[in-house]
TrEMBL record:
<dbReference type="InterPro" id="IPR011009">
    <property type="entry name" value="Kinase-like_dom_sf"/>
</dbReference>
<keyword id="KW-0418">Kinase</keyword>
<dbReference type="InterPro" id="IPR008271">
    <property type="entry name" value="Ser/Thr_kinase_AS"/>
</dbReference>
<dbReference type="GO" id="GO:0004674">
    <property type="term" value="F:protein serine/threonine kinase activity"/>
</dbReference>
<dbReference type="GO" id="GO:0005524">
    <property type="term" value="F:ATP binding"/>
</dbReference>
<dbReference type="InterPro" id="IPR000719">
    <property type="entry name" value="Prot_kinase_dom"/>
</dbReference>
<keyword id="KW-0723">Serine/threonine-protein kinase</keyword>
<dbReference type="GO" id="GO:0005634">
    <property type="term" value="C:nucleus"/>
</dbReference>
<keyword id="KW-0547">Nucleotide-binding</keyword>
<feature type="binding site">
    <location>
        <position position="24"/>
    </location>
    <ligand>
        <name>ATP</name>
    </ligand>
</feature>
<comment type="similarity">
    <text>Belongs to the protein kinase superfamily.</text>
</comment>
<dbReference type="InterPro" id="IPR051175">
    <property type="entry name" value="CLK_kinases"/>
</dbReference>
<keyword id="KW-0808">Transferase</keyword>
<feature type="domain" description="Protein kinase">
    <location>
        <begin position="1"/>
        <end position="231"/>
    </location>
</feature>
<dbReference type="Pfam" id="PF00069">
    <property type="entry name" value="Pkinase"/>
</dbReference>
<keyword id="KW-0067">ATP-binding</keyword>
<protein>
    <recommendedName>
        <fullName>Protein kinase domain-containing protein</fullName>
    </recommendedName>
</protein>
Amino acid sequence: VGRGTFGVCFSAWDSKRNVLVAMKVVRRDERSTEDALVEASKLNILARREGASRYCVQPYTHFHAFGHLCIVTELLGDNLHHALQEYRTNGGRSRGVRMEIARKIAKDLCEALDFLSKAGLVHADLKTENVVMARPGMTLDDPSLSVKLIDFGCASWNGGPAGTVVQTSYYRAPEVLLGLEWSYPCDMWSVGCIVLEMFEGERTFETIDPAQHLAMIQRLCGRIPSYMLQR
């Protein structure tokens, strides 16, 4: 299914549920195992809240096999990054998606953020790779299009202190770039970047240099508020 920082994800058959599931096999080292267990704990807490299955990947179980931690979740569809690439390639489009597609996804993302904020959790790594189609085989042209969030490894309860670096660089909020305290608004910034990317067909802030990133933000959005710079 995919490969990430902490391991490899496979599709597998769950004989108890009689359904295909996703199984992440975590790298066999202490740090990766600890981080994966923390993420699993966050997902389990979220799963107990009403509406969780609508917005977030659903955890099933986890176990150890041959020295590896294995985390089992529901099997979802393609991520938005790949879906956007396929949409442009197959349709011969040079720019982004149609308005109705962007509107559907933006609505889902905003509702997901509302759910997370009420749960007290900041995702802190929203990007097109962590937004996935709600079921296998779903495409951007599907009339029932809906998306869910995955990868809660960086998620934090209520935010984080000044100086901590979170979020993938292209979707990083100004307060994180400036080394300030961060919380729920940084997720909304990332959603804004994702929506712009859907429209334009490319990332809005294609840089990993913080100073250049801040300059690009100011060219597009105006001057950063003085109260943020003074802090």
